Each structure stands twice: as C-alpha cells, then as structure tokens.
Amino acid sequence: MTVDPTAGPEPVAPPPADDGVPAREATAVEHVTENVTLDALPGHDLDQHELRRLVAAVARRPELWQRHVAFSDDERHYVSLHRDAHVDLWVLCWTPLNDTGWHDHDISSGAVAVVRGTLVEHNLAVGKPSVATAVDAGKVFGFGPEHIHRLTGKEPGSVSIHAYSPPLWRMGQYAVTGNGVLKRVSLSYADELRPLDDAEASAAG
Ligand SMILES: [Fe+2]
Q1: Does the domain formed by 22-168 have CATH 2.60.120.10?
Q2: How far is the centre of ligand 1, averaged over its atoms, from the C-alpha of 33 (Å)?
Q3: How far is the CA of 162 from the centre of ligand 1 (A)?
C-alpha cells in the first residue's frame, strides 16, 4: 500500500453516544458473528459482545428452544437452556401482560435476541419519563452490569433468548413509590421478576 506522507491522520469515527439505551443499538442477528456457540463456549466469563454472539447463534437454531415455547398472562414462561460456571442461557415467552418490573442483574452482563414478535425495553430515567424502545424479532442487543431495565411483551406470542455472564445469582428488583422514591429488593435468580407495585407498572406502561 502506498502511503501519502502529506496526508493527514485517518479520520476517526466518533464512538457511538452512550445514552444508556442499548436497545437503540440493537443489530440484526444475521449480522452478528457466530463464533460463540453452545458447542464452542470460551471457558471464561463472557462480556456483553460475546453474549450477543451466543444469543444470536442460539436464535438461529430453533431446535434448541422452540419445544419450550408456551405462554401465560399470569406468570411469565421461561426455561433454562444451559447453565455452567460462566454463563446461563434462557428462553423467555411473552404476552402483552408480561412485565419484569424494573431490575438489575447484579454483577452480570447480558444479551437478548428477540426471535418472535416484539419486546419493549424500558429504561428508568430520573426526573424524566422512562424511555421505551421496541425491539423486533431478528434483533439482538447487549448490556453491562450497570444496566437497569424493564422488559415487557408488546405482541402476543413473543419469544426471546437471553444469556448472562457470570450466571445470574442475585438480582435487584426496584419499586418506585408514589412520590418518586426508588427502593431496591434483592432477589434470587430463581424468583420471578415482576413489578413490585402496580402504580409504577401503569405509569411506565
Ligand atoms: Fe433483565
């Protein structure tokens, strides 16, 4: 390659703005490199980019999850597909009445691939209305342990694949009281996430 010594430095694209809404950065599953799969896990804790590759790879293989698909308006239906020392993997099924409530994932990073229907990711903002971003089937996004969100089903029959690393153990479930005070309750990963108070659930919907 010939280098022009008079040329200035290569223009560098600015990094994407970190606006705290990873669902806005959701990418197409088919554009995600498939080099992290259930058959080829890296043997260490995965970062959010590796987790995105894993859920995208699993999304492309419905034989791994479609037999577990079932729906309930009363209790979200979810099934563990895999759990080891470094990562856990789930299939989650959504109706428009299913709602995780506000929560964090303690020290885990995570990734979500929507494989059927549409989910809505809500991001809690202080002093402003929460942000809602629809994520359609075929899209994948990831987040770090700093992320706080709430997921709801938008369409009947929505399905998503989720992975977390290190595997979920504790999570924080949040309630926003009527005067805006935020409270956190520590949950086990075996507990079902759900809104802690109906007032906030209707406010954020
Ligand atoms: Fe979550």
Answers
A1: yes
A2: 23
A3: 9
